Amino acid sequence: MSNSDQLACERAWLCNLHDLPDGGARGFDPCETGRDTIFVVRRNGELRGYVDSCPHHPGAPMAWRKDAWLNARGTHIVCHGHGAQFDILTGACVLGPCLGQALTPVVLHVASGDEIWVRLSSPWEP
């Protein structure tokens, strides 16, 4: 991986706020792996980002179809492979086979009032 590829993977623009409606979730592939590796949830105006990997079986994608990370009511993140449910704001497992575990968070940054960026390495450098 070249330095420019590494830099692109360390921080990446995801979308604008209006592209992610409140109460929704959307997946992204910031490192261009060919599948969504992180997802972002917007709830009550707050954003949370997580790695798309169930702690019950690390590496297992959680959505059953594109951008389907939430339960039908939009109140929890769901691993559709294992049935685990997670708190949107903390990523903690609240129901299922991985109680006591949590999703891996990613650092999000909103720039220019509307642009959602992700940082996959430290420290954040906009």
Please describe what this structure looks like.
It comes from Paraburkholderia caffeinitolerans. With 126 residues, the protein is mostly beta strands. It has one domain (3-119): 3-layer Sandwich (Rieske Iron-sulfur Protein). It is built from one helix and nine strands; from the N terminus they run αβββββββββ. It has one helix at residues 3-10; strands at 11-16, 24-28, 38-43, 46-51, 76-78, 85-87, 93-95, 105-111, 115-119. The strands form two sheets. The chain has a six-stranded antiparallel sheet. Strands 5-6-7 form a three-stranded antiparallel sheet, with no helix packed on it. The protein is globular and about 40 Å long. The model is unreliable at 1-7 (pLDDT under 50).
Keywords:
single chain, 126 residues, mainly beta, Rieske Iron-sulfur Protein, six-stranded antiparallel sheet, three-stranded antiparallel sheet, 1 helix, globular
User: Outline, from the CA principal axes?
Assistant: globular
CATH C-level category: Mainly Beta
In N-to-C order, the SSE pattern is: HEEEEEEEEE
Strand order of the largest sheet: 1-9-8-4-3-2
CATH architecture label:
3-layer Sandwich
Low-confidence stretches: 1-7
The overall number of domains is 1
Q: Into which percentage range does the β-strand content fall?
A: 25-35%
Structural class: mainly beta
Biggest β-sheet strands, sense, barrel: 6 strands, antiparallel
CATH topology: Rieske Iron-sulfur Protein
Question: What's the N-to-C terminus distance?
Answer: 21 Å
Q: Over all CA atoms, what is the radius of gyration?
A: 14 Å
Alpha plus pi helix count: 1
- Share of helix, binned: under 10%
- Tell me the name of the CATH homologous superfamily: Rieske [2Fe-2S] iron-sulphur domain
Tally the beta strands: 9
Mean of pLDDT:
88
